[in-house]
Amino acid sequence: MKKRYLLIALIVVMVLFFFPSCSIFPSKGNVKVFIKDTPIDITKVDKILITISSVEAHKTGESWQTIFNGELTIDLKVLINNPTLISDVDLKAGKYTELRLVVKSGEIVIGGNTYELQVPSGEAKIPCVFDVKEAATVSITLDFEAENSIEVIQAGGSEKYILRPVIKVESITYQ
């Protein structure tokens, strides 16, 4: 009976030693997502506030994975050339092809007056191909182009502000 347990233990050790990629624990790497804004030409604007409720990443052959969940309100004017960390998580190693930011709400402050930013789609899909490698870190910096994301519609003497997020990948770095 002892020989049988010894044989089973030996087989398990051999499998783990000779086939480390078959580990029962999937390998993971770290992903950091930063967001910034390039300088904008809207001089009358005091603030551009957006509230992000989640950030998701799409892994090849799998479903979307949430990498941030909560509420994060950001003033895009503060982000001008000032990247801010919005997500720092460990993800399964592999190839990822897209990020998705869910924008819950927005406001724009002009001359001290606050206006709602209507967000028709509620999300921004960002083509972003990156590899997560075991025990390594990938940092992604996104550029939220506020100047190209806000549309002003004038109707009946009033202005309506619409946010259609234009977000581009500025950089992907590996460490």
Q: Quick gist of this model?
A:
This protein has 175 residues and is mainly β. The protein has helices at residues 2-18, 146-149; strands at 28-36, 45-59, 64-75, 84-92, 94-110, 113-118, 123-132, 137-144, 150-155, 158-163, 167-174.
Q: What would you say this structure looks like, in words?
A:
The chain is mainly beta. The protein is built from two helices and eleven strands; from the N terminus they run H-E-E-E-E-E-E-E-E-H-E-E-E. The protein has one domain. The strands form two sheets. Strands 2, 3, 5, 6, 7, 9 and 10 form a seven-stranded mixed β-sheet that branches. The protein has a four-stranded mixed β-sheet with strand order 4-1-8-11, with no helix packed on it. The protein is elongated. The protein starts with a helix and ends with a strand.
